[in-house]
Amino acid sequence: MELHSVITSPATILATYKDVLICVVASALAGVGVGFFGCLLSSADKQRQLNGGKHTERSRIRFILGAIGSTIFGVLSLVGLAYGPVALVVVVRAGATLPANALFSQVFHLRPLTSSDALGTLVTLSGVVCFTLFQGDPGPEVTVSVFMDVVARPVSIAWNTVLVVATLAAVLYMMKERIQKRSCLLRRSRRLNSSGLWPNFHHGRFWRKKAQPQEGEREEREEEKPMEATDTRRMCNQDLKEVLAVCIVTSCSSAEMDVAAKGWAAALKLGPAAALESALFWISVVVNVIFLVGMRVGTIIGCHRCDVLLFIPISTVLNIFVSVATGLVVLEEWQQVDSWTGLASSSLTVLGGIIMLVTGPAEAEASRVESSEEESETVEEESTSEEEAECGAVLCGAVEVDTDEEGQQRVFAGRSGTVSVSELLVTTKMHALANMNLNHSRAAWSKTQRAHGPLIRESARWSSAPNLQNLLPPESSSTD
User: Which InterPro entries match (predicted)?
Assistant: First the structure.
């Protein structure tokens, strides 16, 4: 009886599961911190945009605090890797990041909370708890000898080779598409046309008036619809391949980073002096830095140049799947699993909750924007008169829109494909969440309005003013 009471005492349980508790708490704090500082950076960027593209005193402070805080909490996630299995760290970190992002988005007035946020948070947290329980008891401590033994196994070598080859293949595919100038990473918005119609200032943006199609034009459009549908499907397939390539780079890099972190963490357990003299420590650090840069660059490119509402869910799901599989295969974490059925079910639960947290606000925003734009279009078509059309045709004869290459580069400067050093210093999850919060409404608006024809950006410059003399009636010849 005394032996049973000693085994079940709180002190014994705490000593037995101390490493697991540290792993879970550190990973959860890292996820919450990254979500908070990601929203702080989104708020700073929102204030900068409202101020004409320049930081205010408050937005600059928020940006600095967000960059520093996200870096600190990004390093904190490595603490969990030193004390617990990779699979547990990845799932807990992802399960804490997105609910925190949804909550702090409401706090910073980035977007309102929806029912999908509440349900997704509940599902995600439940899945994380179940995954922790089914993960089983903590395995043996990962020392240098243990790490070298598991990494040198043929299965581990084959798995790491597959990840490296997949990463290189995805990079080569993106480079080939970039060289052939077919990549969606290089695709800018539709070029401005010069149809000669006076632009309509609509909801703070310039729109081109749609001319009433004639019978011949309608027939031509009907004939061109199948070709346009084929081109649209081809472009969608190409965009999906591009997104998958970027997600493969980020997910494989993330998995290799976790394994490398286990390596230098094992070397540090020998002491700082012994670790600095260990070849394993320096090799692991170099591999960690290389894949860290690859993951950051991939995430930045994916958030800036791909469809963020497609990139974020696919990237999050692939990161979890590849990292968990790498931990189970390479580091032999499968030996501690209590129930494979429960582990698979809880993993699917976490993934479902994450998808709800990511895609829920975007769908609501898209439907809201679409309904409001349909109403405004109806009002606009009813108020259009023939006099307005004739007046617009006369005015536009004297108007020229400057669409030189320099102007286009200035218009799309915010979505440049070049990755700066300052962007690399910001943690990956923060970058993805900040761009997700920033682009939810913008991406949804662009999707719903893409069918309405080319747009004129706010920053388009007018190189000449309209000649108002054309509005005057012609002078009578009988004035002599």
Answer: Mg_trans_NIPA (IPR008521)
Chain position carrying tokens 């329980």: 133
Rg (CA), the chain: 28
The secondary structure of residue 192, as a DSSP letter, is P
Quick one: tokens of 84?
A: 């617990």
Q: Which residues of 61-96 are buried (b: 16+ CB within 10 A; e: fewer)?
A: ebbeebbebbbebbebbbbbbbbbbbbbbbbbbbbb
Spatial separation of the C-alpha atoms in residues 219 and 117, rounded to whole Å = 46
The one-letter code for the residue type at 413 is A
Which structure tokens are listed for 3? Answer: 């032996």
Euclidean distance between CA atoms 233 and 240, whole angstroms: 10
Quick: pLDDT tens for 349-379.
888 887 777 665 555 555 555 555 555 555 5
Return the pLDDT at 155.
Answer: 92
4 three-state secondary structure: helix
Model-level pTM? 0.60
The sign of the CA dihedral 27, 30, 35, 38 is negative
Which phi and psi (to 5°) does residue 401 adopt?
-95, 125
Exposure letters 344-378 (e unless 16+ CB within 10 A, then b): eebbebbbbbbbbbbbbbbebbbeebeeebeeeee
Could you state, in order of their start, the residue ranges of all structural domains in the chain?
Answer: 2-370+389-469
Please give the structure tokens belonging to residue 186.
Answer: 């290089």
- In angstroms, rounded to a whole number, what is the distance separating the alpha carbons of residues 334 and 67? 36
Contact 408, 10 (CB under 8 A): no
Task: Report the half-sphere exposure of 394 (CA within 13 A, side-chain side).
Answer: 12
pLDDT of residue 168: 92
CA atoms within 13 A on the CB side of 335: 7
Handedness of CA 62, 68, 72, 77 (dihedral sign): positive
Q: Which residue has the tokens 């078509």?
A: 381
Residue 215 neighbours by CB distance under 10 Å: 7
DSSP tag of 110: S
